[in-house]
Amino acid sequence: MNQHLARIICTVILVVTYYQSVHANANNFTAKQIRTGDNLINILRANGFTPREREAVLSADVGLRRLFLTLDTRYLVRKSAGEVELRMFDSQTSDAFRIVKKNGKVQAGQYNPKFKTTALRIDGKVHGSILGSILPKLPSNWVATRFMDAYAFDLKSFRKLRRGAPFWFTVEKKYEEGQFVKYGEILQTSLEIDGEPVRKKFVKSQYGGVFFNDQDLQEKRSFYAPVNYIKIASKFQPNRLHPITRRKVPHLGVDFELPIGEPVLAARKGIVVRYGHNRAAGNYIVLRHAHGVESAYNHLYKIDRRIKQGLTVAPGDKIAEVGCTGYCTRAHLHFAIKLNGRMVDPLNYIKPYPKNMHQVLASQVAKN
User: Fold this and answer.
1) Model pLDDT, residue 237
2) With contact defined as beta carbons under 8 Å apart, do 184 and 172 qualify?
3) Which pLDDT score is estimated for 11?
4) Are 181 and 191 within 8 A, CB to CB?
5) Is 361 exposed, middle or buried (0-12, 13-18, 19+ CB in 10 A)?
6) Helix (H) or strand (E) segment spanning residue 192
7) 200 closest CA partner among 191, 208, 209
8) Whole-angstrom Cα distance, residue 170 to residue 327?
9) Three state DSSP letters for 311-334
10) Whole-number Å distance between alpha carbons of 19 and 229
11) pLDDT at residue 15, as a whole number
12) Are 106 and 56 in contact (CB under 8 A)?
């Protein structure tokens, strides 16, 4: 009787162990690195999706066409008998997508990943460029350029930093299904400028977030930031080589890189003097402010329906959405300021935060 019971127990243990093994394998995801030249189409092709199945994924109206992949990002793959599941993560936003192929049928949709987030601290000293100083310690262009974004309003040129100037920052690392998939936001930074450490903290808002310290609130600049999230793709450059025409064309503004559809905000109280569409600027709006100062907003996806010539807008009012119309290679807002008939560097005139964050930041400074 005891031997019979022992055999039953052993059988049950084997069945349970087998079930657990199969179940674990069914949820076993592998992280794959995004490679140079990768896009959604060739990732699907590499994972066995036929032309018809790839078209089914692309035709699903879930935002996948706007998925932005970089070399810093990984995607997850799970394969079992007759089934393939991919999980894709946008490198610049919190958007995540699940693509499943099972028994010849394909489904694609957004989902909310259950990220496990850790923080990593990096310390270093400036030797050469700031990019060249960060990348050997953490090979991520996203992280290195985010560090530069934190000081875009404090330094006209990173070349002016003292050799050996110390810096440090903490950055989020995001994991899904136990696999590292991407870096998140830089949370805190420190950089020695003119012999003094300048620290910044990333302050989140309902709509985005900015790098900030107490001194930023005291800036007497007359314009607010025209976007909720400061990610700078290109600065004011009088002698820039144009990315499309490959000719030397001055870049007389600053480009804020954001996903299509993000709000564009009036940077100061003003009157709409022009709006419409042209070949280079795409959809655009021009506002006139006090003393004849003008601000321009180019490459817009949509112009707000209430915009008309002569309309007065307040600082922080939504006037349009970020797009990629006209001469454009990637979604962004080109923002320019004209002062006394001359184009000037906007970063010298705008605060490092939008109007809708002023009260939040002022409260935080008072609390500190």
Assistant:
1) 86
2) yes
3) 45
4) no
5) buried
6) strand 179-193
7) 191
8) 36
9) CEECCCCEEEEEECCCCCCCCEEE
10) 47
11) 38
12) yes
CA distance 166 to 125: 4
Question: What one-letter code names the amino acid at 257?
Answer: E
The pLDDT averaged over each successive group of 10 residues in the chain (368 residues) is: 50 40 57 90 93 90 79 92 92 89 90 95 94 93 94 84 94 96 96 94 91 89 96 86 70 93 97 96 97 96 97 98 94 96 95 93 83
Q: What is the pLDDT of residue 5?
A: 47
Tokens 């805190």 belong to residue: 188
Displacement of CA 134 from its chain's centroid (Å): 19
| Calpha distance 194→161 (Å, rounded) | 8
Residue 66 main-chain phi, psi, to 5 deg: -100, 5
Distance CA 349, CA 193 (A): 20
| pLDDT for position 24 | 38
DSSP category for residue 162: P
Cα 114 to Cα 24, 73, 344: the distances in Å are 18, 16, 45
Q: Percent helix, strand, coil in the chain (nearest 5)?
A: 25, 40, 40
Q: Which residues contact 101 (CB under 8 A, 6 or more apart)?
A: 48, 49, 53, 83, 84, 85
Nearest to 332 by CA among 260, 226, 240: 260
The one-letter amino acid code at 45 reads R
Taking residue 340's Cβ as centre, other Cβ atoms within 10 Å add up to 8
Q: Name the one residue in this structure whose structure tokens are 């995004």.
A: 34
Q: Which among 179, 210, 149, 170 has a CA at the least distance from the CA of 73?
A: 179
Q: Is 245 in contact with 229 (CB distance < 8 Å)?
A: no
Please state, in angstroms and as integers, the Cα–Cα distance from residue 15 to each residue in 7, 120, 210, 282, 339, following that order.
12, 42, 54, 64, 78
Contact predicate 201/212, CB 8 Å: yes
Distance in Å from the first CA to the final CA of the chain: 74
DSSP SS3 for 7: helix
Q: What are residue 259's phi and psi, to 5 degrees? A: -65, 155
* DSSP-based three-state secondary structure for 9: helix
What letter would DSSP give residue 136? Answer: T
User: Residue 69 has what DSSP assignment?
Assistant: -
Q: Which among 150, 182, 234 is positioned nearest to 71, based on CA atoms? A: 182
